[in-house]
Amino acid sequence: MGMTMVEKILARASGRPAVQAGDTVVAKVDMNILIDLMFTQWPDPLSIADAERTAVILDHAVPAPSVVDANAAVLAREFAA
Predict the structure, then answer these.
(1) Same domain for 44 and 22
(2) pLDDT tens digits for range 22-55
(3) 15 near 30, Cβ under 8 Å?
(4) What backbone torsions phi and psi does residue 33 show, to the nearest 5 degrees?
(5) Are 35 and 57 in contact (CB under 8 A)?
(6) How far apart are CA 32 and CA 25, in angstroms?
(7) What is the mean pLDDT of residues 17-21?
(8) 7 to each of 26, 28, 29, 54, how far by Cα in Å?
(9) What range defines the domain where residue 65 resides?
(10) Are residues 28 and 50 in contact, defined by beta-carbon separation less than 8 angstroms?
(11) Could you tell me if 64 and 70 are in contact, meaning their C-beta atoms sit under 8 angstroms apart?
């Protein structure tokens, strides 16, 4: 059976002829996305390796339903600045 669309994308980005479910793949990505839900789990985010290819997206908890989510949004905005 052939590869799925995602497998083809990952194979190309990793320079491999083929990948399949369960493979560990190291690939260069076009864009990194940090979502708002992650900022509640990372009390002290590290630095971004490539800021030009990174976006912080606040879309799951907007408006913030709790103080924890509101504080995470503040942290995300400060981190992105």
Answers:
(1) no
(2) 999 999 889 988 887 777 676 665 677 788 898 8
(3) no
(4) -125, 125
(5) yes
(6) 16
(7) 95
(8) 13, 14, 14, 23
(9) 31-81
(10) no
(11) yes
